[in-house]
Amino acid sequence: MSNPTFRTRISQLRKKKITKKKIVRRGNPLNRRNNDDDCEAPLVAGRSALALFGLVGEGAAAAGGAGPSSAPAASSSTHPHHPPYHLRRKSPTHPVSPPTSLGAGAAAASVVATPPTAASAGVSAATAGLPSPATTPVLSPTAAITAATTYSPSMLPARKRPRRTYSTGDSSTGLGCNTSAAPHYLLHELPDEVLITILSYLYERDLCRVAQVCKRFYTLANDNELWKNLYQGLYEYDLPLFNSSPCKFDFVQPEDCDYDNPWKESFKQLYHGVHVRQGYQKHASKITGRSVTYFETIQVAYDYACDYAECPLVLIHSGVYCGEVIVIETNIAFIGAAPGNVAENVILDRESESTVMFMEGAQRAYLGYVTIKFSPPSCTDTMQHHKSYALDIQENCSPTIEHCIIRSCSHYDDCEAPLVAGRSALALFGLVGEGAAAAGGAGPSSAPAASSSTHPHHPPYHLRRNNHTRSITYCCHHRCTHIQPSMLPARKRPRRTYSTGDSSTGLGCNTSAAPHYLLHELPDEVLITILSYLYERDLCRVAQVCKRFYTLANDNELWKNLYQGLYEYDLPLFNSSPCKFDFVQPEDCDYDNPWKESFKQLYHGVHVRQGYQKHASKITGRSVTYFETIQVAYDYACDYAECPLVLIHSGVYCGEVIVIETNIAFIGAAPGNVAENVILDRESESTVMFMEGAQRAYLGYVTIKFSPPSCTDTMQHHKSYALDIQENCSPTIEHCIIRSCSHLGAAVSVSGPGAEPVIRHCEISDCENVGLIVTDRAQGHYEDNEISRNALAGIWVKNFANPIMRRNHIHHGKDVGIFCFDGGLGYFEANDIHNNRIAGFEVKAQANPTVVRCEIHHGQTGGIYVHEQGMGQFIENKIHSNKYAGVWITSNSNPTIRKNEIYNGLQGGVYIFGDGRGLIEHNNIYGNALAGIQIRTNSDPIVRHNKIHDGQHGGIYVHEKGQGLIECNEVYANTLAGVWITTGSSPTLRRNQIHSGKQVGVYFYDNGHGLLEDNNIFSHLYSGVQIRTGSNPIIRRNKIWGGQNGGVLVYNGGLGVLEQNEIFDNAMAGVWIKTDSNPILRRNKIFDGREAGICIFNGGRGVLEENEIFRNAQAGVLISTQSHPTQSHPSLRRNRIYDGLAAGIEITNNATGTLEYNQIFNNRFGGLCLASGVNPIQRGNKIFDNHDAVEKAVSSGQCLYKISSYTSFPMHDFYRCRTCNTTERNAICVNCIKTCHNGHVVEFIRHDRFFCDCGAGTLNNQCQLQGEPTQDTDTLYDSAAPIESQSLMAEV
């Protein structure tokens, strides 16, 4: 019967089909197997595979591997084992017929049909005797075929079809011997489960032979479970053991291996080894029939392997090997071989001389997975084995010893060694003097508490060895059940005792029982409970007794209770660097015992505890110094301590004079929020003062208050503060709460040259004056502080002070957040400044701070306020959501505002007024309620490379004689004009991108002037540029295009010079001039407009010189006067007007003009078209090569609507039809009058520009000359009127 593991494997195979898998080639030429169905290929590969375990000689291999090997077991050195090729292809979905001869098939059938005895399998004399299992199944091919489904051989694929056979009997009767039935049934009909069960009775060499028969047999013979059983039967290991590199053997989980069959691979790597097994004759069933060499003793196996093996390997199976002489002088590997914990089951033991010795020559020797013991008898003279060891490695050898358990029961080990280490450990907390250390640390210290200065504390050694697993003691005699003291390691052995009774009777007092019980029998929980009653120095002594006590005495909970009882902290406090103390979560520490490490770092400190006599139970028996007042503790620590540290326990310390002039550390010590429970308070003079000499002083985790009585004369404490840091000192103040009730002085004052404190993680709030003042050239680092709710500014920086302030939170002040004045400097980075009543940051009076990456928001007045000649660099800040402007610049101030985001202000973004200056560059200004940048009242900033967009008002607003250089900005998507220039202002705008506005691009009005040069102005809902009411800008070399209401609109008395611009692709006219405006247009290119190039209406004038006007949809220049008292009369000189889709120049509605030396050519409706009553001044014009499409249409009898549609207005005679009741808004062309209105009452109106309403289908009668009607009825519009900007001129 098959075992359960095979049943499991069989059930898996039933559920999963075997699919093809590629061969994994690992560089070995023997791994190359031909995929072609060459009948000889399996035999050639088979020779290599049979050589896998050294089972086939030259003759047998040449014969196809069918014959037995005649080589003896020792022939493994003559015929070395070849590394096997890794046959790892999955079985094909349909079994493939074996490309072997009939004899091979019959031989395979015989393996299945009969038990694998020595005679039937062909085993050699040296390896014969393979046992036949008692219950080997004998299968009948006839019965199997009968049970199977009947099928025709032709139904099989060609390669799987059985070969033709020839019967030796009478063909007429069907009697004969058909030799193909058994092989065919074995190859194709027998289920995988049955075949695997059969293969489970084979050993390794037979499995390799079977794998050469066909692909199906190859897959089955490489089954993992088959090789796992073979592997565990031979080597006994629970996991595959791999020789991953020289002198390294490691167990690996099968699922973590790179091999498809890790059991087979490990089998192969270890197969060249020889085995040592006590009483190996009992295991004959596992030995006979295999090429495996066994020996009874390690020495014989060692000699054999050194003589015959190329890479000697000895596998030592389970057992206790006593008295073996193991002296290793060659490069050989010894490995234990056993199930479970290998080393515990393979024991090498000796009573005299060393158990294992490595001597010269063992350069790459290996020993692993064994227990090595040296167990001399207790009665033996110690001098007999004083030079003997469990493992002895002598000179000039470098072996590798891995995964071994090593024990020695020799009493000759030096007993003083633990005491030497113990002395260092007891000095951990400075508890042992010279005398006590010399005595092994057994006695208590008699030094008084103040003696810590006489005997300085030594830095402890870090006792962090892992918890040692309890040793397993073996006895050479299996009946031994008691642990003998001599078998224990030297440090765990009980001391020698002396009986006080009668030795002959055995009566007396043996004192060894209690120590032995304490060391080995008492549970850990009981011992930890006992140790919990000890203080730190006693725990350190206990830790020196043995490894078990060391582990227990370093228990985290023990030290946590000690720590919290002495220091009161909830978390470990570490002195991670000079002048830095931080609480750390225990799980985030790198120390094995964070409580003990913190205890050690703080142990040299002295304690201040009010009424400390009440805590006598925590003080007596400890080397801890307590004082009642801070001043006494300070004096004591400065006099006696090398690194003075004062721990101030919970309480309110009023009236203490704390003047610090040395490098000392003061730390609050309390549970919960430490600083809230340790309060230093004073009513007169400063509470804490740092003076010259306090270069590396420290103050942390306390509350510092200055509380003068309200009735006290204010002059008494006008120079008093909660914290006063004076010149030439650089203390560190951390995690403190600082308050001041004084209406005159700040809470924290840092003043004088050389004052360079580090103030971090402090809270400075609810003060009646300024929170922090840095003055008189003081410096320092101020980081991660909370500064809030102060009556005046959160921070003052003045008189050339130059602090560094990072990551502070400054908010809800009743004045300014930070105020720099009177030459104050400073570097402010990543601060959060918000909700202050005035500005978040104020700069004045020559102050020049650097503000980088701060967030300044929700100010009740503004974000940044620079005034009275203030300066400063404001870089990469976020300035948003302030009630007024994000940045205010005024009164000759000149700051740099660079790379900031200024957005969502309730008024403007940047407001420059009152002679303000400044450099505003690379900012992103958006979403503000008023203008993104506002410049007024003689201010003259430089504004460049900014993005000003999506404002709820305009982009840039320059008014009230504002100036400035505005260049290379992108102004877009603002609700009103992109740029407003008004009321006498005269800025310079160069190389800006002004686009996508919801009104005008650039708007000049009310005497707005300035230079608009090299800008790109496009895609506005109104005109690109509008000029009105006395404005007279210079507009030069701009591109103005894509406007939905025209390119340039000059109206209501507007002036200006437009030269060298490109004005194109606008929805209406390129340039509008109307209502008494008189601009100068010179050398512009006006083209591709969707209406006229230039329209001059309603009294518009102007000088048009040397312009190129071409490819416009309507007239190149249209001059008209509609119900305006002033006649339109422009001057056109030396212009080129060509390629228009209508006329070149049209003059209508009694308008006039002066036309001199113009060139008008190649226009569709003619060169110059004049309406009735129009008589312009003409001189030297050249009108040529125009296409008179209107006259051609009239002469051909076409309706003029056919050539004009409703998009252009050809100039010709037009009529009205009284019969059809046409209105003054309608016109009919001459051909429609003749044809469509023949016989009607008609009247001639005038010669002018129109399109035909009859052809457009807007009259009652359908036009007989035109097709489908349209819906347009406005015939006589000269052109749609431009939309004038209705922008509100809001001012801040």
TrEMBL record:
Keywords for the protein's UniProt record, in alphabetical order: Chromosome, Metal-binding, Nucleus, Repeat, Ubl conjugation pathway, Zinc, Zinc-finger
- Which residues lie in Low complexity bias regions? 68-78, 444-454
Q: Pinpoint the F-box domain residues.
A: 184-230, 516-562
All residue ranges annotated as the UBR-type domain in the record: 1197-1268
- Any one Pfam family here would be F-box-like
Q: What's one GO-annotated cellular component?
A: chromosome
Tell me where it resides.
Chromosome; Nucleus
What does UniProt give as the signal peptide span? Answer: none
Q: How does it assemble?
A: Component of the SCF(FBXO11) complex consisting of CUL1, RBX1, SKP1 and FBXO11. Interacts with CIITA.
Name the pathway it acts in: Protein modification; protein ubiquitination
For this protein, the record's PROSITE patterns field holds: FBOX (PS50181), ZF_UBR (PS51157)
Q: Which domain of life is it from?
A: Eukaryota
Matching SUPFAM superfamilies: F-box domain, Pectin lyase-like
Which chain segments does UniProt annotate as zinc-finger regions (UBR-type)?
1197-1268
Ranges for the region named Disordered are: 61-103, 442-463
Q: What is this protein called?
A: F-box only protein 11
Q: Which molecular function term from Gene Ontology is one that the record holds?
A: zinc ion binding
User: What's an example Gene Ontology biological process for this entry?
Assistant: ubiquitin-dependent protein catabolic process
Question: Is the keyword Amino-acid biosynthesis in the record?
Answer: no
- Asked whether the UniProt record includes Cell inner membrane among its keywords, one would answer no
Question: Where are stretches of biased composition, namely Basic residues?
Answer: 79-92
